[in-house]
Amino acid sequence: MVTGKTDPAAAAGHCAACRESRELFAFSMAFQPIIDLEEQRIDSYEALVRGPAGEGAAFVLNQLNASNTYSFDQACRVKAIELAAALDMDRQLSINFLPNAVYEPRACIQATLEAATRTNFPRDRLTFEILESESIADTPHLLSIIREYRKQGFKVALDDFGTGYSNLSRLAQLRPDILKVDRMLVQNCDTDSTRLAIVAGLIAIGKAIDVKIILEGVERAEEVAALKSVGARFIQGYYFARPTFEWVIRDEDIAWP
Predict the structure, then answer these.
(1) Do residues 100 and 70 touch, judged by C-beta distance below 8 A?
(2) What are the sequence ranges of the domains in the chain?
(3) In terms of DSSP H, where are the helices of the chain?
(4) Is-contact 6 104, C-beta < 8 A?
(5) Is the separation of the CB atoms in 157 and 47 below 8 Å?
(6) Residue 240, Cβ neighbours under 10 Å: how many?
(7) Do the Cβ atoms of 121 and 115 come closer than 8 Å?
């Protein structure tokens, strides 16, 4: 995997990996809304990778290997921005990224900046979600990515909080703008007082440190009611909308509770 060491020659523009032309498999994107319960509007959308005919994420991710992961990470950003612009998305756009696929933060962001400029998609509407599917020992490198992204006007989210490597110490280290709480902590919160108490605690922490809390995987009306009772505001899940392939659901399409 990538070590995170900086190539001095790369800092001024595209790094060597950026300049390499690699032929990738075909893929596209679906978009799932993130709901603002307080204002009853769509707050943002998450871009989710799909096959060229709408196949699930596994269809695409199973084609990844050590030689194409970096190119795929870059191509995902560009594809998401291009589609969002084509669909006249006027909300925040969240894009997942793999920290280990970022060689040098300033150089590796160039394709993203160019896509935003070319499509007139505002930089301040871009959020990058940190996926920590494996241990990332090089915390200073990850912090350098976050600093550079904020310098460019992007927001940074820590995804799947409560599972894997995302924990309270990681929150204190990285200090993201947004914390996305994994469904494993959210599911059945209406009947599990322990889960609901943990979620309530995270919401309180978010307010205290000015971090937006988004609760993922909400699928039932009872879960929505329980989450609202402890102050939840931002929710993502099938209860409100499933991801839509190459399309975005609008405010008027949501059945508000």
Answers:
(1) no
(2) 27-250
(3) 16-19, 57-61, 69-86, 105-108, 110-119, 139-151, 168-174, 183-186, 193-209, 221-229
(4) yes
(5) no
(6) 22
(7) yes
Residue found by looking up tokens 């990332």 in the block: 136
Q: How far apart are CA 244 and CA 219, in angstroms?
A: 16
CATH 3.90.1150.10 fits 27-250, yes or no: no
Q: Yes or no: say if 236 and 218 are a contact pair by the CB < 8 Å rule.
A: yes
Written as tens digits, the pLDDT of the chain (257 aa) is 333 333 433 444 555 555 554 678 999 999 999 999 999 999 999 999 999 999 999 999 999 988 888 899 899 999 999 999 999 999 999 999 877 778 788 888 899 999 999 999 999 999 999 876 555 557 888 899 999 999 999 999 999 898 766 788 889 999 999 999 999 999 999 999 999 999 999 999 999 999 999 999 999 999 999 999 999 999 999 999 999 999 999 999 998 88
Q: How far apart are CA 53 and CA 149, in angstroms?
A: 32
Residues near 72 by beta carbon (within 8 Å), at least 6 away in sequence = 24, 64, 101
Amino acid (one-letter) located at 170? R
> For the CA atoms of the chain, what is the radius of gyration?
18
Q: Tell me, what's the pLDDT at 103?
A: 75
Separation CA 187–CA 177 (nearest Å): 24
Please give the C-alpha separations between residue 104 and each of 3, 8, 16, 133, 210, in angstroms, as whole numbers: 10, 9, 10, 20, 28
